[in-house]
Design a protein that fits this description.
Length: 422
């Protein structure tokens, strides 16, 4: 149980750290990628304002009259569009080309002097593809393009983003690798420190198991003596309501001790029988039929809907005990003249066992608290029924040993449905 809890702790910690890493690294990578088209669009805006070329030289001086010329305004507007990326080296570092097309789609001008990887024919083919595709900006391979209206026609301008894309890809690979390496190191640290964290819990749990085992052995002797003394009293004075009550309580205590020992073994993942292939249909049906008389004597009906030929791999005796515990709970706590149903069916690779019983009143929704040890929903689930309060806890442990799932649910507040998935 502690090992399972430790594994869950490590899994929860690693999943949380992984989720945080994904968000942080993913956000950085997304922002890094978005930066590429944003900066390329700023460069395209400058090129679009100057017929596919970068403006050269400093801005014209502003006249004394403080009235700026149109040329000065255009230059300063271009500089503002390139804010944050402009430097005197930008025109020489940027690889770009442009194609001017007329109204009929004829090529009027091709500028490829600022890029070595693209020839005129390739540039013209790229421009025609962009115009056929539609839209005013986007990516053509690793080239960011923008379509602008020129005085003589339509100009398609391309900026080479290959270097930025390669840098981004390298960053993605590096950041991902570093994140995975960091995750591995964190996993090692969590495994090491979780052992120290869970050591006190493990000691406490071992003491608890030792106490239950020792207490069960210590209780057997006085219970046997009390039972023997009661038998002697009955031989001398005859049977009375007091001796009957004593025998009843001895039987109840003995059964409780046995259940506690079984529950402790189940918590350890121990099985009393071998794991084999057996007929789950026969095991459930034969166990359920044993409850036909007890339920009938209490005025309750028991109906079986069991699919034939279902095979299960597990501890057959434990599964029979599981069925018995669920039915014992249904018979004890169903309402007067209640209905009890046992359903078994196969869905894919899963075997689904359901035990449904009517009740006088229960809250709608999840009822998994019933599987807690000694949990009693209300006064109706009292010791008068003969229950110990740990039957369903043992049922849950049996299911967990078989790597299955068990749930309790009330659909209408008038019935309890316990579902086991193996």
């Amino acid at each position: 149980m502690i090992k399972s809890l430790r594994k869950k702790f490590i899994m929860a910690a690693m999943c949380s750290i992984f989720a945080v890493l994904v968000v942080i690294v993913g956000a950085i990578q997304i922002f890094s990628y978005l930066k590429i088209p944003r900066e390329a669009d700023q460069l395209l805006a400058i090129l679009g304002d100057h017929q596919g070329e970068f403006p050269r030289g400093p801005a014209p001086e502003i006249p004394d009259s403080r009235e700026k010329s149109a040329q000065t305004d255009a230059f300063e507007d271009s500089m503002r569009k390139a804010a944050g990326i402009w430097s005197p080296e930008t025109p020489y570092e940027t690889r770009y080309f442009s194609v001017l097309l007329g109204e009929e789609g004829e090529i009027l001008e091709t500028k490829t002097g600022n890029i070595a990887a693209i020839q005129d024919e390739t540039a013209e083919a790229y421009a025609r593809t962009v115009l056929e595709k539609g839209g005013i900006q986007g990516f053509r391979g690793s080239y960011r393009y923008k379509v602008v209206e020129d005085a003589d026609g339509t100009r398609v301008i391309f900026v080479d983003c290959t270097r930025e894309m390669n840098s981004f890809h390298s960053f993605v690979i590096t950041s991902t690798a570093v994140s995975l390496l960091g995750l591995l190191l964190v996993l090692i640290l969590v495994i090491l420190f979780s052992g120290k964290i869970f050591h006190p819990v493990l000691e406490s749990y071992e003491k608890q198991k030792r106490f239950i085992t020792d207490a069960s052995h210590e209780l057997k002797t006085p219970l046997t003596i009390i039972d023997a003394n009661t038998e002697v009293l009955e031989m001398i004075q005859g049977e009375s309501e007091w001796t009957v009550s004593i025998r009843k309580q001895i039987k109840r205590l003995t059964y409780l001790v046995q259940q506690m020992v079984v529950l402790t073994r189940m918590d350890e993942g121990n099985r009393t029988g071998p794991m084999i292939d057996f007929s789950l249909s026969d095991a459930v049906e034969e166990t359920a039929e044993l409850f036909a008389v007890p339920s009938g004597s209490r005025g309750k009906s028991l109906k079986l809907q069991i699919e034939k030929g279902i095979i299960c791999h597990g501890d057959e005796e434990a599964v029979r005990q599981l069925t018995s515990l669920l039915l014992d709970n249904a018979v004890k706590y169903s309402d007067r003249e209640g209905n009890i149903q046992v359903l078994l069916q196969k869905k894919g690779r899963k075997s689904i066992l359901k035990v449904i019983n009517t009740v006088e009143k229960i809250e709608k929704g999840n009822q998994d608290l019933l599987f807690e040890r000694f949990y009693r929903r209300d006064a109706s689930r009292s010791s008068d029924t003969g229950g110990s309060g740990i039957g369903l806890s043992i049922a849950k442990s049996i299911v967990e040993v078989h790597n299955g799932k068990i749930h309790a649910y009330s659909r209408n507040g008038k019935s309890l449905e316990i579902t086991v998935v193996l």
